[in-house]
Write a structure and sequence with these properties.
The structure is a single chain. By secondary structure, the chain is of the alpha/beta class. Helices cover 36% and strands 7% of the residues. It contains 18 helices and eleven strands. It has helices at residues 29-33, 37-47, 87-95, 99-106, 115-123, 142-147, 174-187, 202-205, 236-254, 289-299, 319-326, 336-343, 353-371, 384-395, 414-424, 441-449, 469-479, 498-507, and strands spanning 113-114, 156-160, 198-200, 259-262, 307-309, 374-376, 404-406, 432-434, 460-462, 488-490, 513-515. A six-stranded parallel β-sheet has the order 6-7-8-9-10-11, with no helix packed on it. A five-stranded mixed β-sheet has the order 1-3-2-4-5. The longest helix has 19 residues, at 236-254. The protein is elongated, with a radius of gyration of 25 Å.
Amino acid sequence: MASDTDEKEDTIATEDIKLEGAQEVDPNAMAAAQEGAAEREAAYRAVLVSARDWVPVQLDGADGGSATAPTSTPAHIPGALDVQVDSTTITRWKERRGGELERMIATGAVALLDAKWVIRLARQDGRFKPRQALPDEAFLSLTQVQAATAGLELPVVCVSHPWLQPEHPDPHGHNLQTLARALEALLEDELLCNGTAGVFYDFSSMHQKCRRANGSAGDEIIGFDPSLRGGVGRYASEQALFTQALHDVSVLFSHPHTHVWKLTELPPDYDHELQYKQSGNRAPYEERGWCFCEQLLAEMMKSGYLVLDLGKIGSWVNFWDMQSVCSDVRRAPMLPSRVAAELQNKSFTNGRDRPIVARIYAEGFAKRWGEVEEIDYSYLDWGDMEARLLGDVLRKIRAPNLKKISLSLNSIGPEGTVALAEGVKGLKGLQALVLDRNEIGAEGAIGFAKRMKNMKALQYLNLDGNEIGPEGALALTRAIKGLRELELLNLVANQIDDEAKRMLKERLPAGLEMKV
């Protein structure tokens, strides 16, 4: 994603000019789109324990439109058709928490592209355009998105991509071709979507500064092309919806049931001055600030197959084959303050976006950790570094609903185990902790045991296959005496000899089951 907040535009009076491209919009839409700022702030601060970890920048008012943009002109709202949605499909939509997306689509803050339309555009060798310049048939209505809900996840794909030029993210259709190929595979799988899917592509899903002086929408962002300067940019009504959409980015990318696809490969001719202007932000995907934020949001709570790197795209037979090829390394979650610091070293076309991006991450972080009941970071080959990052997050947040943490089949050693225990001990509602098949060892078990006394709600602890030995096992049994809720302790496959097993059973509190 890119922003155009640094545009230097010449402006002209527009009051007596007939403005094109405006459609009628629900008069309550703008007000609804701007609601909730106080609630977001309160929820955000409620999750983070220390003020040092807050990122206080507000998004409201960011990226302003033209100073002379008329205030009363309706915003561009796609005229997509409503369809009937049966009760079974609506139930699926609700079970997958589709309600989180309803306001942003219904108010017009975000417009989702029709995946079928994107595929047709690629086949015709077309190009993406700003949202205001696209026809109604490019978009899906809320009911059309709901009707596409199938068995497993929401039929929504969020595209994370580096803008290849400041005025247009993909001027020659390089990324469009890759995206369309992946969408074809998705649409063929009836478990993932029913007929089509909604695509969030920022340039075409959010209101852009593309309006000329007469209000018509151009094919690129104005301000970078001298011939287009002096345009309206966005109407004030579109600016209000754009500001709301900035908040919605964190919801879309962090949602546990949306797909996030990363377009990480730059075009092979990207350095050719006749193909791409040699200006603006030309850093690779991993060094882009917006992309860094989007992938961290995506990896926070989702199942691994929902986050794909299309830069690894190869040949495949179906979506699941594509998923195997394009699966990516999953990073440990980071505190907002750490991400804000990391963003100082990331590349932006517009440096004023840096605090905005930090705040977007912070809002997504607060929302997801404030509501999450179970997190699963199993099978990720995480080591001590990732465990330390996770432990730091858990130590500095309030996660009142978090009941289960799974970290099976990783490579977490003693140091990471202790760091994780430091974080876990403050989670008052945690009931289950699954750490089987790691590399905890006796040292890690002893360090963990020293921090167990505050885990009062813990009911299930699985340390199967960690080579903790007799010394580590005995330390754990001494520590669990005060944990009255603990029902099951799994110490199978931990190199515990028969004599140690006998001692463990003798010291076992009444009512506690232990597997050795």
